[in-house]
Every structure is written in structure tokens, then in C-alpha cells.
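Hey, resending since the last one bounced:
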Amino acid sequence: MPRVYYAPGFYAWAGTGWGRPVPYAWFGPGLAPTPGISYYAGYFTPYPDYSSPNMWLTDYLLAQNLQLAYENQQAINPGTAPPPLGSVQSPVTPETKAMISNDVQQEVAQESAASVQHSLSDNQTSPAIEAPPTAFTQKIFVVSSNLEITAGNQTCSLTPGDIIERHAKDVAPDGTVAIEVVNSKPGDCAADTDSALDINKLQEMHNQFQEQLASGLSQLANNQAAGLPAPQSAGARTAAEGTADPAPNAASVVKAQEDAATGAETQVRQAGGGN
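The C-alpha cells again:
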């Protein structure tokens, strides 16, 4: 459920082109650091300019997940050098970006329709109808967490920023969905690996896709993507259904989980050093 809805004109702007390529710098002097992009430079290269918001949103989604992968990598092996350019066997291609962009455009269109329903509900002229999000509305997924998948009799890893494609149209009796690895970073499951993924994991990726898309739309709506054209008026409206009061003990629970995870990592390192 989106936390914010925008005016229909904003979604129309977000779903169309600008008429000309607009240069955009992801990093450089005076800009926010994006180490995930530079660390995986051989795997993912953002475009230097954009002709439409949805292509910028596509690179934004990829950059967000590669930042997660970078942070996970540095937490385990601080100061690790980036993978050699020559070791990247399946970099993200323009064709892959185009497929992700199609899913982005479809999601923006669906949110636009939901925004109209929400507006009608506010005016008490028509009830809002919200269907629960489903991973089957998405074809291409950008991995957003560390995963283990099985291919044949072997297992391999996927990390944030790898890209998979959903092949099945239904959930198998064991609760899995057939997928194929499209692009992957060095050391992760090779491209063209066929496997099956639990539907809940696929749904988590879809939810993360929606969260990151909402973050990117917010940057565009608030003109925070410096250099890109700004919409005339985003008309943001908070959706009460998309918010919830925080759990009173959330901070202590998260702190306890972080302490437990840190302790487990320390034990693993000590055990490894002893061998």
C-alpha cells in the first residue's frame, strides 16, 4: 500500500518522455557518494543521460540494490577491493534495463489508477478498491537480499543487484516459482541458471521493488534528482491505509537482533581463524 499518492498529472509526467536526453551525474564533486555503483562498475553502468523518468527510475532501482550488496560485502570483508572488470561474465545490458523499465512503467500506471480511486474515495463518490500486491504482476526481479538457490544438485548464491526472470505463471505445489538468472555479479550464480524460488521470497522482492520505486518517485516529485526536469506539481497526498503506528518496543527489538547478528559473525570469524 503506497504511503503517498500523487496527482494524476504527476504520474502522466512520470510515464512519458522528456523529448530530449537530459544529462545526469550519479557521483562526482559535490554529489552524494554512491560506492555501490563504483564498486560494481564492471557489472552495472548507469546511463549518462535520460529521455524519460522511467529509465532513470530503472537505474535508481539497480543502484539502490547494488548499494545493499556493497554494504553487505564490506560488513563481512571490510576494505575488499572491487572485482576485476574482466571477471564480470554477465553485466547488466540495455536489453535487461529495458525489461525492468517495462515493469517500472507498469507499476507507475497501476499506482496512477489507484491514486484516482483513492481521490474518489476521499470525495465519497466511489469506494477505493485495492488489490493486494502480487509478484505475478512483475516479470523481471532485481534481487534485494542474499539468497541461496538450488540448481541441479548444487547450490549457489544470489546477492542484491543480481537479476532474475520469473518463468512460471503459477505457484508449484511445493510453493515455489520457476526462475532463471539473467545477470549476476562475480561469485554469484551464473547467468542462465535455472532454479525455483519460494513464492514468499519472490513477493519480498516485489515489495522491495515497490518501496524503492516509491523512494525514486519521491525524489522526482521533490526535485531531489538534481539536473532532471521537475514536474509542475506532484500534489502528494498521504494515504492513511499505507501508514501504521510504530511498535513501542521496535527499537529495542532491532537492537537485540543487531547484537545477536554481530555476535554470530564474530563467532564465525573466530572459528575460521582457529582452523
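Confidence is low (pLDDT under 50) at residues 123-133.

Sorry for the duplicate.
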